[in-house]
Amino acid sequence: MRDKATERWSTYEPFFIALGDKKVADIVITNHAKSRYGDRVDSVQKSTEEIAAWLWECLQTGRIVSYYRKEEDVYLIDNDIVMVAEFGELTGPYPVEGGPLHKMIIVTFLGKMSETIELRDLKTYYSWLRHSRRMTLMKNGRKKK
What we know:
Protein name: Periplasmic protein
Low-confidence stretches: 1-10
Mean pLDDT: 78
Radius of gyration: 18 Å
Number of strands: 6
């Protein structure tokens, strides 16, 4: 993403952004995240580059915060959009004091809290989802016998 935003390395703009204890220097959007973005965040189809540019801008302006204080996989954008992200270390000759650079891999967009009330408490929502799926599987298993 840093190469898309600026044509060259700028001396005025840092090439990484701190998010918690990670130094994000690149954003990767999975195909699943791209499809979920179209379904749950913005109905207008956007390219992967446009979504990554928007996320980079959100990182720069500090609009992305951790959903939970201790866990680092679920994030909020503008206190409304819930997304799941993983981090991987970047390999390469990037000498940075204080640790390696990371790429932020966007796994999925869960949706907007303003539209889906269940996203306000993810742990309860996921336990309900697991329970309902298990019950559906059990019910379907009974039918087949």
